[in-house]
Description:
The chain is α/β, with parallel strands linked by helices. The chain is built from 14 helices and 17 strands.
Amino acid sequence: MGIRLKSGFMKKACIVSIGDEILTGQTVDTNASYLSEKLVSIGVPVVSSYTVGDDIESIVKSLKLASSDADLVLATGGLGPTDDDITRQALAKFLGAELELQEELLQEIQDFFTSRGRQMAAKCKVQAYVPAGTKALANNLGTAPGIMAETTRPEPGRTKGKLVIVLPGVPSEVRQMFEESVLPELRSFAGGQAVVIRKLRCFGTGESNIAGLLGDMMQRGRNPLINCTAEYGVITLHIIATAKDRIQAQQMAEKDEKLLRETLGEFIYGTGEQALADVVGEKLAQENKTIAVAESCTGGTLAKLVTDIPGASHYFTHGWITYSNEAKTSELGVPADVIAIYGAVSEQVAEAMAQCARKKAGTDFAIGITGIAGPAGGSEQKPIGLVYISVDSNNGCETKRFVFSHDRSSIRLRAAQTALNMLRLKIYV
């Protein structure tokens, strides 16, 4: 069984995740991310996804929506032997077909239990029923076979209908069945189509500003499509280029990457999955430069980010967590009168922390961070989220004021990331 589309027609996929346990948050849906990644790798982009509970009418509705979105529908969950496993019934209703007992499947299920010295429960027989005209997919890790079906309602531009594949919900079974039974079919389905994805990592501005700078480049329906995601201040731009072959898709992605770099400039710090600490560490190692850090409100978060990178010992020498005023003075040498006059959370103290740390460590760079991470301790003059960050080097000391939002953990991580970005810009001057 297979599906063939007219030459030049773009193949797209939709994923349907089935199960009350997913909707209630009891189970994390790892299948959707796995399948999305696998589909893109063979040139079939996922354009939509649906999550639905164990209800026949809801599943049928989701399958209809999914098949209207895409050429391929991949669904997971609800193929087991219990009363709430009703995906096979919903698929049969969607296809307008009757469920039929396949004796070979039943024998395979019985053999599965026999080989393990167990007797098959009567309820397991239901797993040997599949909609008429569909193909069962072998499950070597469990008893629930997958089901592959082709709709009988072709649309303009297609020689046949849509391809619908339903797999069990157990992640290990999904992976095994996809690799062995589904992937060979889908390679033929994808034809020569190729998808190339490039990621550009940005820091130092927000999503709205990036969207404003890029303008029409982020328009929906554009090819390459440019998506934007954000996490703790890191903005990731996904360039998704789809073409008839990989070379053309690669060229399209490269052209857009060049345009993005020209537009965003120093906001772009890396590619792929690179963290700020990766880029900063690589540059420090290349330049044979060293760094020390003095932290207060971040409580060692900055030092952890830096030392999470293998090889950090080549450039990271010292780290101080001077949480109290006394520690700032006794450990770093920050003048007590500076703290008394300006307060521990101030531009002057952050600068003194960085300068004292660099002097004590004898490094090329040093970072000082002081602030109010909350949830208490803020005031009208110094609100929660207020952080001063200072980067000291032979070229002088740069200190900036920030006010970060959200919870304590987010404020600390944003502050540490921002400190790394300030260092990055100073190293690359």
